[in-house]
Specification:
By secondary structure, the chain is mostly helical. It has a single domain, classed as Na+/H+ antiporter like fold. It contains 14 helices and no strands. Helix 4 runs antiparallel to helix 6, helix 4 packs across helix 11 and helix 11 runs antiparallel to helix 12. The relative contact order is 0.18.
Length: 336
């Protein structure tokens, strides 16, 4: 989520981050197979990445962002569609009578997308240049709030149900208790740093230029990628992926069909589809069709949900995106 100042630096970051993602997943998988690391370590490693990398990145990225009043609909539409898609996924999981540990993964992965610079932002930059990347950053402004105020409490709720706990007082009361626990959890630190960054931004406080000059955000992102994607590799069990591909395909269908359809309806209702500048509309549609987010895999590891299903959905949706969605987007853009 960094606003590149020139094409070369953005291209370099995209190549760097993509290489780091592939190396981290492969490295975590190989090290686990060799017995150097244990899959049980993944949760602690990913938690460390949230606190040490994601938290400062969230605050600094929003602090540096040039906030424009006329693009408020971009992050608003992202949040609305993310919440609605998760609810559709959870309803589908309930209809299919999935156990709680599966239902949470199925539903939340349908609504949580890889919209950051590691995929969604890079594609937006390729298609629409620096303005596309800037709009992706605006879209992601509400991501910490969506993740830590909505997704994490739901993850905790389903984890408790999977453990046999009863939701005394009903779902709403239990969800509020889960929200309270999330707000006091150190892993929710990005929520507070994002809030601090937004306050500093709106107050007109100048961000420290050394952060940009020393490429501190880039460095934090590289470290975070290795820790979080390495954690995914540590927990991938190829032999078990064949057991969950049907459920993963169902979640992928919601991700790639329902989410863009909801985004089309929401942005049309807001008037974005008939605006003079259609780039915000296009970026929102693009990001609504991104594969599932790494945070959904992280939540499965942190809360003891079905991480085999989470890993299968994560890998399947990224494979579909790279093989089908991105080529189709580029072909459409070339002919537009």
């Amino acid at each position: 989520m960094i606003l590149a100042t020139q094409n070369g630096s953005a291209d370099f970051r995209f190549v760097l981050f993509t290489a780091c993602i592939l190396a981290a997943v492969a490295g975590g998988y190989v090290l686990r197979r060799l017995g150097v690391v244990k899959p049980e370590w993944a949760g602690r490693i990913m938690s460390g990445a949230i606190v040490g990398c994601d938290a400062p990145i969230a605050g600094l990225a929003i602090w540096f962002l040039q906030v424009r009043r006329d693009v408020w609909m971009v992050p608003a539409s992202g949040t609305i569609v993310g919440v609605l898609t998760c609810l559709v996924g959870l309803a589908a999981a309930r209809w299919r009578r999935m156990p709680p540990a599966d239902a949470a993964v199925f539903g939340l992965q349908a609504g949580m997308g890889n919209v950051g610079y590691t995929l969604g932002g890079a594609i937006a930059f390729v298609l629409w240049g620096i303005q596309g990347l800037a709009l992706e950053q605006v879209f992601c402004m509400t991501w910490p709030f969506f993740a830590f105020l909505f997704c994490f409490p739901l993850g905790r709720y389903y984890a408790a149900r999977a453990g046999g706990a009863r939701a005394s007082g009903g779902f709403v009361a239990y969800a509020l208790k889960a929200l309270g626990r999330s707000l006091t959890d150190l892993k929710s630190l990005p929520l507070y740093t994002a809030t601090a960054g937004l306050v500093l931004n709106l107050a007109g406080a100048a961000p420290p230029e050394r952060v940009r000059e020393w490429h501190l955000i880039d460095a934090l992102m590289v470290v975070g990628i290795f820790l979080q994607f390495g954690g995914v590799g540590m927990t991938v069990r190829a032999g078990r992926m064949v057991l969950y591909w049907k459920k993963a395909l169902g979640s992928a269908a919601i991700k790639f069909l329902v989410s863009p359809a909801l985004m089309l309806a929401v942005t049309a209702a807001m008037g974005m589809a008939c605006a003079a500048d259609l780039r915000p509309f296009y970026v929102c549609l693009l990001l609504a069709a991104m594969p599932t987010a790494l945070y959904s895999v992280l939540m499965a590891n942190l809360f003891g949900l079905n991480r085999d299903l989470a890993n299968t959905t994560f890998i399947l949706t990224h494979a579909i995106c790279l093989a089908v969605a991105i080529p189709a987007l580029c072909f459409w853009h070339a002919g537009a």
